[in-house]
Amino acid sequence: MSNYECSLQGIVIGQAQKEKFMQRLVGLCGNDSMVDLFEHELVFIPSTQSPVGPARNDDVVLRLQSKINNEKEYSMKYRQWFLCLQGNPEPQRARTVTVRPISRVQLSGDIFRFMKSLGY
Q1: What DSSP letter does each residue of 27-69 carry, written as one string?
Q2: What is the structure's pLDDT at 23?
Q3: Among 20, 57, 86, 90, whose CB has the most other CB atoms within 10 angstroms?
Q4: Which residue pairs, CB below 8 angstroms and at least 24 apart, start in 106-111?
């Protein structure tokens, strides 16, 4: 079973643009399900990066993400963490949107020890 997540990326400058943006979101999503959402994302780059120059490889950036649903989860120890890898954007000719694949895996245990064992 596939899950799809839509992410909007961009810059909203000024209160007037913010209000127009929110109106369009309400038009797409409805107004009855507005809730506060708190997430925490940690971005990791490899501790040993490939050398600068023509032979350089693109270093893989990994992200740890967690949602904060209650007061107990304010502590990083009690959160459910997910390891995320974002693929390269894949523009499609017949669409007006760009698709970027995201691989996401649930983690358990000491997340920082795990990331260190991967070389991050």
Answers
A1: HHH-STT-----EEEEEE--SSPPPSSTTPPPPPPEEEEEE--
A2: 87
A3: 86
A4: 106/80, 106/81, 106/82, 107/64, 107/81, 107/82, 107/83, 111/64, 111/81
SS3 for 83? strand
Angstrom distance (rounded) from CA 42 to CA 71: 19
Are 107 and 114 spatial neighbours (Cβ–Cβ below 8 Å)? Answer: yes
- In 3D, which of 5, 81, 83 has the Cα closest to residue 44? 83
Helix (H, G, I), strand (E, B) or coil at 88: coil
> In this predicted model, what pLDDT tens digit does every residue of 69-103 receive, in sequence order?
888 888 888 889 999 988 887 777 877 777 788 88
For residues 37 and 66, is the Cβ–Cβ distance under 8 A? no
pLDDT tier for residue 27 given thresholds of 50, 70 and 90? confident
User: Is the Cβ–Cβ distance between 104 and 41 less than 8 Å?
Assistant: no
State the pLDDT at residue 82. 94
pLDDT for 81: 93
